[in-house]
Amino acid sequence: MKILVTGVAGFIGSHTAERLSELGHNVVGVDNFNDYYDVSLKLKNANAVKAKGVEVLKLDLRSVDLHSVLSKDFDYIFHYAAQPGISATSTFEDYFSNNFLATKNLVDFALQCENLKLFVNIGTSSIYGLEATFTEDVAPKPASYYGVTKLAAEQLVLQKSREQQFKACSLRLYSVIGPRERPEKMYTKLIACGLNNEAFPLYEGSDKHLRSFTYVGDIVDGVVSVIGKETITDGEIFNIGTEAEHTTQEGIEAVEEILGKNIKIVIVPKRAGDQKRTKANIDKARKLLNYNPETTLLESVKHQVNWYKENF
Quick one: which of 84, 85, 35 has its CA closest to 271? Predict the structure, then answer.
């Protein structure tokens, strides 16, 4: 199969592209290599992906006429590219252009791919809102520009399924952790602070927040499981994550246990739009995709600490 992966130099996109290549697929990845975080880290991810046989192209989905630079013979599209997370440095325009307009351009390109079996949109638990513990049929209540624009992007893709223009599904991912996690995210920053004897900035009250911290390998298991299941996944939304819940404090303690040292904490003001609880309800994914995440929090953290030490 020939597969397109957008956001291929990112955290989860790079792992997905590698897995797809290892499964024997012909994988093409695109990324705009923006400077939301250190571009050298994205280049490192891209080089790792290239080493697995993936073709990597520098393209900005917002501004490039995709059909003029990409072939139209893709069997699957996995769409990760987005303006990620909740960030004070990102404007509404950043979220709108990267999450909505870029998706619209990709959808227009997908309509020209005559062999397309499935368009897989990568969504987020942030679509649900401040509490993300629900089944996929609950009405979303996003509480951030990120969540709002990711919901809009999801609906752009699913609209084409409803119109029977191509088959599509959306996967809402939960609190992904592991090697290549972005530098501003919790575990990478915790590990860096612990190893460099720096203070970790903890948002006020967030130590009690509950999360479905899910190992990236388990996430990729769920993502690639849609291949060959176009009929049962078409038009559907799936939660992908672990059912195990842990507080942020338990996450801090897991890193301290693996590092064998305490991490200094400094309390900073609360962050607007931050989710209080995420717990992946994966009954639907278990039933239809045979999805079964098994990696524990401690195992996940150990993998991430080893990766950090090897690379930094």
Answer: 85
| CA atoms of 27 and 31, how far apart (whole Å) | 13
Active site members:
146
Could you tell me the CA-to-CA distances from 281 to 126, 167, 199, 213, 276 in Å, in that order? 14, 24, 34, 13, 16
State the Cα–Cα distance between residues 31 and 72, nearest whole angstrom: 18
Residue 132, H or E segment: strand 131-132
Kindly list the distances between the CA atom of residue 217 and the CA atoms of 168, 187, 292, in Å, as whole numbers in the listed order: 23, 16, 11
- The letter for the amino acid at 301 is V
- Summarize pLDDT for 50-76 with one digit per residue, the tens: 999 999 999 999 988 898 999 999 999
**Domains of the chain: residue spans and CATH:** 2-173+217-240 (3.40.50.720), 177-211+243-279+294-311 (3.90.25.10)
